[in-house]
Amino acid sequence: MSEHARITPSGITETLGIQGWDHLDPILLAALATESPLLLIGPHGTAKSLLVEKIAGALSLSMRHYNASLINYDDLVGIPLPEVGTNQLQFVSTPGAIWDAEFVFFDEISRCRPDLQNKMFPIVHERRIAGIRLGRLRHRWAAMNPPAPDDPDTSTGEYYLGSEPLDPALVDRFPFVVPVPNWKQLSKENRRRLVTRWQRVEHGELEVAALGDQVVQCAALIETLEEELRDWLIDYVVSVVDLLEQAQLGQSPRRAYMLARSLVAIHAARMILEGDNAELEYSAELALTFGLPQNASEVPPSRTKLIAIHRQAWEISSLSEDDAWRQVLEELDPARRIVLADQLDLADSDISRLITQAIGAETSDARRTGLAAAIFIAFQKRRDLSASAWEPLAQLATRVLEPRALSTPLRAGAMTDIWNEINHWLPALEDCVNIRMRLERNYVLSGFPELWMRVDWKDALEQFRADLNLFNIDEAME
Fold first, then answer.
1. Same domain, 356 and 391
2. pTM for this model (two decimals)
3. What single-letter DSSP state applies at residue 334?
4. Are residues 102 and 247 in the same domain?
5. What single-letter DSSP state applies at residue 140?
6. CA separation (Å) from 429 to 254, 269, 426, 433, 451?
Protein backbone atom coordinates (compact mmCIF):
# COMPACT_ATOMS: atom_id res chain seq x y z
CA MET A 1 0.00 0.00 0.00
CA SER A 2 1.39 3.44 -0.92
CA GLU A 3 2.07 6.09 1.71
CA HIS A 4 -0.77 8.20 0.27
CA ALA A 5 -3.34 5.43 0.71
CA ARG A 6 -2.33 5.08 4.36
CA ILE A 7 -2.92 8.74 5.20
CA THR A 8 -5.98 9.32 7.38
CA PRO A 9 -8.16 12.12 6.00
CA SER A 10 -9.11 14.83 8.49
CA GLY A 11 -11.35 17.55 7.00
CA ILE A 12 -14.64 17.39 5.16
CA THR A 13 -13.25 17.53 1.65
CA GLU A 14 -10.34 15.18 2.36
CA THR A 15 -12.73 12.69 3.90
CA LEU A 16 -14.77 12.86 0.71
CA GLY A 17 -11.62 12.40 -1.40
CA ILE A 18 -11.38 15.97 -2.78
CA GLN A 19 -7.82 17.27 -2.79
CA GLY A 20 -6.64 20.80 -1.99
CA TRP A 21 -9.98 22.13 -0.77
CA ASP A 22 -9.37 21.88 2.97
CA HIS A 23 -9.30 25.71 3.34
CA LEU A 24 -12.90 25.69 2.09
CA ASP A 25 -14.17 23.18 4.67
CA PRO A 26 -15.58 25.89 7.01
CA ILE A 27 -17.35 27.59 4.09
CA LEU A 28 -18.98 24.35 2.96
CA LEU A 29 -20.03 23.39 6.48
CA ALA A 30 -21.43 26.89 7.12
CA ALA A 31 -23.48 26.72 3.91
CA LEU A 32 -24.83 23.29 4.85
CA ALA A 33 -25.66 24.30 8.42
CA THR A 34 -27.50 27.47 7.37
CA GLU A 35 -28.99 25.85 4.23
CA SER A 36 -27.76 28.89 2.29
CA PRO A 37 -27.20 28.93 -1.48
CA LEU A 38 -23.58 28.47 -2.51
CA LEU A 39 -21.93 29.23 -5.86
CA LEU A 40 -18.69 27.47 -6.88
CA ILE A 41 -16.47 29.20 -9.44
CA GLY A 42 -13.57 27.54 -11.18
CA PRO A 43 -12.15 26.07 -14.39
CA HIS A 44 -13.41 22.78 -15.77
CA GLY A 45 -12.08 19.64 -14.14
CA THR A 46 -11.59 21.12 -10.66
CA ALA A 47 -14.03 18.69 -8.95
CA LYS A 48 -16.92 21.10 -8.43
CA SER A 49 -19.59 18.60 -9.49
CA LEU A 50 -17.80 15.73 -7.80
CA LEU A 51 -17.78 17.55 -4.47
CA VAL A 52 -21.50 18.32 -4.59
CA GLU A 53 -22.40 14.74 -5.50
CA LYS A 54 -20.27 13.40 -2.66
CA ILE A 55 -21.74 15.82 -0.10
CA ALA A 56 -25.30 14.94 -1.11
CA GLY A 57 -24.43 11.25 -0.90
CA ALA A 58 -22.76 11.62 2.50
CA LEU A 59 -25.88 13.36 3.85
CA SER A 60 -28.20 10.83 2.15
CA LEU A 61 -30.12 13.61 0.42
CA SER A 62 -32.21 13.22 -2.70
CA MET A 63 -30.29 15.27 -5.27
CA ARG A 64 -31.03 16.73 -8.70
CA HIS A 65 -28.04 17.62 -10.86
CA TYR A 66 -29.03 19.92 -13.73
CA ASN A 67 -26.79 21.13 -16.52
CA ALA A 68 -28.16 24.68 -16.73
CA SER A 69 -26.82 25.18 -20.24
CA LEU A 70 -28.96 22.32 -21.60
CA ILE A 71 -32.13 22.04 -19.53
CA ASN A 72 -35.57 23.36 -20.39
CA TYR A 73 -38.15 24.52 -17.88
CA ASP A 74 -40.10 21.30 -18.36
CA ASP A 75 -37.07 19.37 -17.12
CA LEU A 76 -37.55 21.12 -13.78
CA VAL A 77 -41.31 21.00 -13.35
CA GLY A 78 -42.32 17.95 -15.38
CA ILE A 79 -45.15 17.91 -17.91
CA PRO A 80 -47.79 20.66 -17.40
CA LEU A 81 -51.38 19.51 -17.96
CA PRO A 82 -54.70 21.31 -17.40
CA GLU A 83 -56.29 20.35 -14.10
CA VAL A 84 -59.75 18.92 -14.68
CA GLY A 85 -62.54 21.26 -13.65
CA THR A 86 -60.27 24.27 -13.04
CA ASN A 87 -58.39 26.86 -15.04
CA GLN A 88 -55.10 25.84 -13.43
CA LEU A 89 -52.22 23.62 -14.49
CA GLN A 90 -50.99 20.55 -12.71
CA PHE A 91 -47.52 19.11 -13.25
CA VAL A 92 -46.97 15.44 -14.01
CA SER A 93 -43.66 14.73 -12.35
CA THR A 94 -40.82 13.02 -14.21
CA PRO A 95 -37.82 11.24 -12.64
CA GLY A 96 -35.68 14.36 -13.07
CA ALA A 97 -38.24 16.90 -11.85
CA ILE A 98 -37.41 19.08 -8.88
CA TRP A 99 -40.49 18.49 -6.70
CA ASP A 100 -39.08 15.91 -4.28
CA ALA A 101 -35.47 17.10 -4.36
CA GLU A 102 -33.65 17.88 -1.12
CA PHE A 103 -30.45 19.09 -2.76
CA VAL A 104 -30.42 20.89 -6.14
CA PHE A 105 -27.23 21.58 -8.08
CA PHE A 106 -27.27 23.88 -11.13
CA ASP A 107 -24.06 23.22 -13.05
CA GLU A 108 -22.85 25.58 -15.80
CA ILE A 109 -25.21 28.28 -14.52
CA SER A 110 -23.23 31.02 -16.30
CA ARG A 111 -24.08 29.37 -19.66
CA CYS A 112 -27.79 29.34 -18.93
CA ARG A 113 -30.26 31.31 -21.06
CA PRO A 114 -31.38 34.57 -19.39
CA ASP A 115 -35.03 33.51 -19.40
CA LEU A 116 -34.18 30.26 -17.61
CA GLN A 117 -31.95 32.10 -15.12
CA ASN A 118 -35.03 34.13 -14.22
CA LYS A 119 -36.95 30.91 -13.54
CA MET A 120 -34.10 29.61 -11.36
CA PHE A 121 -34.18 32.79 -9.32
CA PRO A 122 -37.13 31.85 -7.06
CA ILE A 123 -35.70 28.34 -6.60
CA VAL A 124 -32.42 29.75 -5.28
CA HIS A 125 -33.96 32.60 -3.33
CA GLU A 126 -37.31 31.31 -2.07
CA ARG A 127 -37.31 27.54 -2.67
CA ARG A 128 -40.29 28.02 -4.95
CA ILE A 129 -41.05 27.13 -8.53
CA ALA A 130 -44.09 28.29 -10.49
CA GLY A 131 -45.17 29.91 -7.24
CA ILE A 132 -45.28 26.55 -5.43
CA ARG A 133 -43.24 25.98 -2.29
CA LEU A 134 -40.64 23.18 -2.58
CA GLY A 135 -41.21 21.77 0.87
CA ARG A 136 -38.39 19.20 0.87
CA LEU A 137 -35.72 21.37 -0.74
CA ARG A 138 -32.91 22.34 1.62
CA HIS A 139 -29.74 23.07 -0.36
CA ARG A 140 -29.44 25.08 -3.59
CA TRP A 141 -25.89 25.07 -4.97
CA ALA A 142 -24.56 26.07 -8.37
CA ALA A 143 -21.29 26.10 -10.30
CA MET A 144 -19.81 28.10 -13.14
CA ASN A 145 -16.61 28.72 -15.04
CA PRO A 146 -15.03 32.16 -14.64
CA PRO A 147 -16.67 34.63 -17.04
CA ALA A 148 -14.63 35.54 -20.11
CA PRO A 149 -13.22 39.09 -20.07
CA ASP A 150 -14.28 41.54 -22.75
CA ASP A 151 -10.82 41.36 -24.32
CA PRO A 152 -9.48 37.86 -23.52
CA ASP A 153 -5.78 37.02 -23.85
CA THR A 154 -5.93 34.29 -26.47
CA SER A 155 -2.30 33.34 -25.89
CA THR A 156 -3.07 31.79 -22.50
CA GLY A 157 -6.22 29.88 -23.45
CA GLU A 158 -7.45 30.27 -19.86
CA TYR A 159 -10.86 31.73 -20.55
CA TYR A 160 -14.39 30.52 -21.34
CA LEU A 161 -16.09 32.35 -24.19
CA GLY A 162 -19.50 30.84 -23.41
CA SER A 163 -19.40 31.74 -19.73
CA GLU A 164 -21.23 35.01 -19.09
CA PRO A 165 -21.47 37.06 -15.88
CA LEU A 166 -24.58 36.18 -13.90
CA ASP A 167 -27.42 38.64 -13.51
CA PRO A 168 -26.45 40.80 -10.48
CA ALA A 169 -29.77 40.10 -8.76
CA LEU A 170 -29.25 36.34 -9.11
CA VAL A 171 -25.67 36.26 -7.85
CA ASP A 172 -26.71 38.48 -4.93
CA ARG A 173 -28.90 35.59 -3.71
CA PHE A 174 -25.83 33.43 -3.08
CA PRO A 175 -24.40 34.23 0.37
CA PHE A 176 -21.33 32.12 -0.44
CA VAL A 177 -19.51 32.85 -3.72
CA VAL A 178 -16.52 30.53 -3.70
CA PRO A 179 -13.58 30.45 -6.12
CA VAL A 180 -12.14 26.91 -6.05
CA PRO A 181 -8.47 25.93 -6.48
CA ASN A 182 -7.08 24.96 -9.86
CA TRP A 183 -4.02 22.78 -10.56
CA LYS A 184 -1.57 25.65 -10.04
CA GLN A 185 -2.98 26.35 -6.60
CA LEU A 186 -2.69 22.76 -5.36
CA SER A 187 0.28 21.82 -3.21
CA LYS A 188 2.74 19.22 -4.47
CA GLU A 189 1.36 16.70 -2.00
CA ASN A 190 -2.23 17.29 -3.12
CA ARG A 191 -1.20 16.94 -6.76
CA ARG A 192 0.39 13.58 -6.00
CA ARG A 193 -2.69 12.37 -4.15
CA LEU A 194 -4.94 13.45 -6.98
CA VAL A 195 -2.83 11.72 -9.62
CA THR A 196 -2.73 8.49 -7.57
CA ARG A 197 -6.54 8.56 -7.50
CA TRP A 198 -6.72 9.39 -3.79
CA GLN A 199 -10.19 10.77 -4.38
CA ARG A 200 -11.43 7.24 -5.13
CA VAL A 201 -10.22 5.72 -1.85
CA GLU A 202 -13.15 4.33 0.09
CA HIS A 203 -13.52 5.69 3.60
CA GLY A 204 -15.30 4.17 6.55
CA GLU A 205 -19.03 4.75 6.96
CA LEU A 206 -18.50 6.44 10.31
CA GLU A 207 -16.15 9.02 8.76
CA VAL A 208 -18.64 9.98 6.06
CA ALA A 209 -21.62 9.89 8.41
CA ALA A 210 -19.80 12.38 10.67
CA LEU A 211 -20.64 15.15 8.21
CA GLY A 212 -24.33 14.99 9.19
CA ASP A 213 -23.40 15.30 12.87
CA GLN A 214 -21.14 18.26 12.11
CA VAL A 215 -23.97 20.03 10.27
CA VAL A 216 -26.32 19.59 13.22
CA GLN A 217 -23.70 20.75 15.74
CA CYS A 218 -22.80 23.76 13.63
CA ALA A 219 -26.43 24.84 13.24
CA ALA A 220 -26.93 24.68 17.01
CA LEU A 221 -23.74 26.64 17.71
CA ILE A 222 -24.71 29.42 15.29
CA GLU A 223 -27.68 30.41 17.45
CA THR A 224 -25.42 30.81 20.50
CA LEU A 225 -22.75 32.76 18.67
CA GLU A 226 -25.22 35.17 17.07
CA GLU A 227 -26.16 36.42 20.53
CA GLU A 228 -22.59 36.50 21.87
CA LEU A 229 -21.13 38.38 18.89
CA ARG A 230 -24.05 40.71 18.14
CA ASP A 231 -22.52 44.09 19.10
CA TRP A 232 -19.10 43.39 17.63
CA LEU A 233 -20.65 41.87 14.50
CA ILE A 234 -22.70 45.01 13.77
CA ASP A 235 -19.61 47.20 14.08
CA TYR A 236 -17.46 44.97 11.90
CA VAL A 237 -19.94 44.41 9.06
CA VAL A 238 -20.97 48.08 8.85
CA SER A 239 -17.29 49.05 8.64
CA VAL A 240 -16.56 46.38 6.02
CA VAL A 241 -19.45 47.39 3.76
CA ASP A 242 -18.50 51.09 4.03
CA LEU A 243 -14.90 50.29 3.12
CA LEU A 244 -15.98 48.08 0.23
CA GLU A 245 -18.07 50.97 -1.09
CA GLN A 246 -15.05 53.24 -0.92
CA ALA A 247 -13.00 50.64 -2.81
CA GLN A 248 -15.66 50.59 -5.57
CA LEU A 249 -16.88 47.17 -4.48
CA GLY A 250 -20.34 48.31 -3.46
CA GLN A 251 -22.72 45.86 -1.80
CA SER A 252 -26.48 45.70 -1.44
CA PRO A 253 -28.12 45.98 2.00
CA ARG A 254 -29.04 42.32 1.55
CA ARG A 255 -25.36 41.42 1.19
CA ALA A 256 -24.55 43.24 4.43
CA TYR A 257 -27.02 40.99 6.25
CA MET A 258 -25.64 37.93 4.44
CA LEU A 259 -22.07 38.77 5.45
CA ALA A 260 -23.08 39.04 9.10
CA ARG A 261 -24.91 35.72 9.04
CA SER A 262 -22.17 33.99 7.05
CA LEU A 263 -19.44 35.24 9.38
CA VAL A 264 -21.15 33.70 12.40
CA ALA A 265 -21.77 30.46 10.51
CA ILE A 266 -18.16 30.22 9.34
CA HIS A 267 -16.86 30.82 12.85
CA ALA A 268 -19.20 28.15 14.20
CA ALA A 269 -18.00 25.77 11.48
CA ARG A 270 -14.37 26.43 12.35
CA MET A 271 -15.09 25.83 16.04
CA ILE A 272 -16.58 22.45 15.10
CA LEU A 273 -13.71 21.55 12.78
CA GLU A 274 -10.75 23.13 14.58
CA GLY A 275 -11.79 23.50 18.21
CA ASP A 276 -9.80 26.06 20.20
CA ASN A 277 -7.67 26.95 17.15
CA ALA A 278 -10.58 28.85 15.59
CA GLU A 279 -9.84 32.59 15.82
CA LEU A 280 -12.63 35.04 15.12
CA GLU A 281 -10.41 37.37 13.07
CA TYR A 282 -9.62 34.67 10.50
CA SER A 283 -13.29 33.64 10.37
CA ALA A 284 -14.14 37.24 9.49
CA GLU A 285 -11.47 37.24 6.76
CA LEU A 286 -12.91 34.04 5.29
CA ALA A 287 -16.44 35.46 5.33
CA LEU A 288 -15.28 38.49 3.35
CA THR A 289 -13.09 36.50 0.96
CA PHE A 290 -15.82 34.01 0.02
CA GLY A 291 -18.89 36.19 0.47
CA LEU A 292 -18.78 38.82 -2.28
CA PRO A 293 -20.76 38.65 -5.54
CA GLN A 294 -17.79 40.25 -7.33
CA ASN A 295 -16.02 36.87 -7.07
CA ALA A 296 -18.23 35.80 -9.98
CA SER A 297 -17.26 38.75 -12.19
CA GLU A 298 -14.76 38.93 -15.05
CA VAL A 299 -12.22 40.65 -12.77
CA PRO A 300 -12.60 39.38 -9.18
CA PRO A 301 -11.37 41.64 -6.36
CA SER A 302 -7.74 41.11 -5.39
CA ARG A 303 -7.13 39.20 -2.19
CA THR A 304 -4.63 41.87 -1.10
CA LYS A 305 -7.32 44.56 -1.27
CA LEU A 306 -9.85 42.42 0.61
CA ILE A 307 -7.39 41.61 3.39
CA ALA A 308 -6.56 45.31 3.79
CA ILE A 309 -10.27 46.13 4.07
CA HIS A 310 -10.80 43.32 6.56
CA ARG A 311 -7.91 44.46 8.76
CA GLN A 312 -9.11 48.05 8.85
CA ALA A 313 -12.66 46.97 9.72
CA TRP A 314 -11.31 44.59 12.35
CA GLU A 315 -9.30 47.40 13.92
CA ILE A 316 -12.29 49.76 13.91
CA SER A 317 -14.58 47.21 15.53
CA SER A 318 -11.98 46.45 18.21
CA LEU A 319 -11.95 50.05 19.48
CA SER A 320 -14.44 51.89 21.67
CA GLU A 321 -16.81 54.42 20.12
CA ASP A 322 -14.99 57.40 21.67
CA ASP A 323 -11.49 56.27 20.74
CA ALA A 324 -9.71 58.93 18.63
CA TRP A 325 -8.04 56.34 16.41
CA ARG A 326 -11.42 54.79 15.68
CA GLN A 327 -12.80 58.19 14.62
CA VAL A 328 -9.91 58.47 12.19
CA LEU A 329 -10.33 54.99 10.76
CA GLU A 330 -14.06 55.53 10.27
CA GLU A 331 -13.32 58.45 7.93
CA LEU A 332 -13.44 56.74 4.52
CA ASP A 333 -11.47 59.31 2.53
CA PRO A 334 -7.71 58.64 3.02
CA ALA A 335 -6.72 62.32 2.66
CA ARG A 336 -9.39 63.56 5.07
CA ARG A 337 -8.31 60.81 7.45
CA ILE A 338 -4.86 62.42 7.67
CA VAL A 339 -6.34 65.86 8.37
CA LEU A 340 -8.61 64.46 11.10
CA ALA A 341 -5.70 62.64 12.73
CA ASP A 342 -3.75 65.90 12.79
CA GLN A 343 -6.72 67.78 14.29
CA LEU A 344 -7.08 65.11 16.98
CA ASP A 345 -3.34 65.47 17.66
CA LEU A 346 -2.49 61.84 17.07
CA ALA A 347 1.14 60.79 17.23
CA ASP A 348 3.55 61.42 14.38
CA SER A 349 3.90 57.67 13.90
CA ASP A 350 0.14 57.32 13.39
CA ILE A 351 0.03 60.16 10.87
CA SER A 352 3.05 58.68 9.08
CA ARG A 353 1.18 55.41 8.71
CA LEU A 354 -1.90 57.17 7.33
CA ILE A 355 0.19 59.14 4.84
CA THR A 356 1.90 56.01 3.58
CA GLN A 357 -1.47 54.30 3.14
CA ALA A 358 -3.02 57.30 1.34
CA ILE A 359 -0.15 57.71 -1.12
CA GLY A 360 0.06 53.96 -1.75
CA ALA A 361 -3.67 53.59 -2.31
CA GLU A 362 -3.96 56.44 -4.82
CA THR A 363 -4.13 55.06 -8.35
CA SER A 364 -3.82 58.35 -10.25
CA ASP A 365 -0.26 59.63 -10.76
CA ALA A 366 -1.62 63.16 -11.11
CA ARG A 367 -3.52 63.00 -7.80
CA ARG A 368 -0.63 61.25 -6.07
CA THR A 369 1.76 64.06 -7.03
CA GLY A 370 -0.59 66.86 -5.99
CA LEU A 371 -1.59 65.18 -2.75
CA ALA A 372 2.03 64.56 -1.78
CA ALA A 373 2.91 68.21 -2.42
CA ALA A 374 0.02 69.44 -0.26
CA ILE A 375 0.91 67.06 2.60
CA PHE A 376 4.61 67.91 2.41
CA ILE A 377 3.94 71.65 2.65
CA ALA A 378 1.44 71.20 5.49
CA PHE A 379 3.64 69.01 7.70
CA GLN A 380 7.26 69.83 6.86
CA LYS A 381 7.64 72.18 9.85
CA ARG A 382 5.02 70.74 12.22
CA ARG A 383 5.46 66.98 12.19
CA ASP A 384 8.37 64.62 12.69
CA LEU A 385 7.24 61.95 10.27
CA SER A 386 8.93 58.62 9.74
CA ALA A 387 11.36 58.12 6.86
CA SER A 388 8.86 55.77 5.20
CA ALA A 389 6.44 58.71 4.97
CA TRP A 390 8.90 61.52 4.20
CA GLU A 391 10.71 59.75 1.37
CA PRO A 392 7.73 59.22 -0.99
CA LEU A 393 6.35 62.65 -0.04
CA ALA A 394 9.61 64.40 -0.88
CA GLN A 395 10.12 62.43 -4.07
CA LEU A 396 6.68 63.30 -5.40
CA ALA A 397 6.48 66.86 -4.04
CA THR A 398 9.81 67.77 -5.65
CA ARG A 399 8.11 67.67 -9.05
CA VAL A 400 5.98 70.63 -7.95
CA LEU A 401 8.31 72.44 -5.53
CA GLU A 402 11.40 72.23 -7.76
CA PRO A 403 10.17 72.08 -11.35
CA ARG A 404 12.50 70.59 -13.95
CA ALA A 405 13.76 72.21 -17.11
CA LEU A 406 12.31 70.41 -20.11
CA SER A 407 12.65 70.73 -23.85
CA THR A 408 9.95 68.89 -25.75
CA PRO A 409 9.48 69.12 -29.53
CA LEU A 410 5.86 69.69 -30.47
CA ARG A 411 4.17 68.53 -33.62
CA ALA A 412 0.58 68.99 -34.68
CA GLY A 413 -1.58 66.62 -32.70
CA ALA A 414 -2.93 65.89 -29.23
CA MET A 415 0.22 67.02 -27.39
CA THR A 416 0.23 70.38 -29.14
CA ASP A 417 -3.46 70.87 -28.42
CA ILE A 418 -2.85 70.22 -24.72
CA TRP A 419 0.09 72.63 -24.64
CA ASN A 420 -1.94 75.34 -26.35
CA GLU A 421 -4.65 74.94 -23.69
CA ILE A 422 -2.09 75.12 -20.90
CA ASN A 423 -0.25 78.06 -22.46
CA HIS A 424 -3.49 79.98 -22.80
CA TRP A 425 -4.22 79.44 -19.09
CA LEU A 426 -0.66 79.70 -17.79
CA PRO A 427 0.02 82.86 -15.76
CA ALA A 428 3.43 84.46 -16.24
CA LEU A 429 5.79 83.94 -13.34
CA GLU A 430 5.80 87.64 -12.49
CA ASP A 431 1.99 87.58 -12.39
CA CYS A 432 1.95 84.92 -9.65
CA VAL A 433 1.22 87.19 -6.70
CA ASN A 434 1.37 84.43 -4.08
CA ILE A 435 2.91 81.03 -3.46
CA ARG A 436 -0.33 79.20 -4.16
CA MET A 437 -0.44 80.54 -7.71
CA ARG A 438 3.16 79.44 -8.23
CA LEU A 439 2.35 75.98 -6.94
CA GLU A 440 -0.57 75.67 -9.33
CA ARG A 441 1.62 76.84 -12.23
CA ASN A 442 4.38 74.41 -11.30
CA TYR A 443 1.92 71.56 -10.89
CA VAL A 444 0.47 71.99 -14.37
CA LEU A 445 3.91 72.31 -15.95
CA SER A 446 5.28 69.31 -14.07
CA GLY A 447 2.58 67.09 -15.56
CA PHE A 448 3.35 67.95 -19.18
CA PRO A 449 3.40 65.91 -21.30
CA GLU A 450 3.28 62.51 -19.60
CA LEU A 451 0.41 62.99 -17.15
CA TRP A 452 -1.79 65.17 -19.33
CA MET A 453 -1.70 62.69 -22.18
CA ARG A 454 -3.61 60.31 -19.87
CA VAL A 455 -5.85 62.58 -17.79
CA ASP A 456 -7.45 65.98 -18.20
CA TRP A 457 -5.12 68.60 -16.72
CA LYS A 458 -8.00 70.92 -15.83
CA ASP A 459 -9.70 68.24 -13.69
CA ALA A 460 -6.36 67.40 -12.08
CA LEU A 461 -5.72 71.06 -11.28
CA GLU A 462 -9.12 71.36 -9.58
CA GLN A 463 -8.28 68.33 -7.45
CA PHE A 464 -4.88 69.84 -6.59
CA ARG A 465 -6.56 73.07 -5.50
CA ALA A 466 -8.97 71.03 -3.34
CA ASP A 467 -6.03 69.22 -1.70
CA LEU A 468 -4.27 72.52 -1.00
CA ASN A 469 -7.45 73.76 0.69
CA LEU A 470 -7.94 70.51 2.59
CA PHE A 471 -4.47 70.72 4.14
CA ASN A 472 -4.75 74.48 4.65
CA ILE A 473 -1.40 75.21 3.04
CA ASP A 474 -1.97 79.00 3.21
CA GLU A 475 -1.60 78.77 6.98
CA ALA A 476 1.37 76.43 6.67
CA MET A 477 3.23 78.90 4.44
CA GLU A 478 2.66 81.97 6.62
1. yes
2. 0.83
3. H
4. no
5. E
6. 56, 68, 9, 9, 22
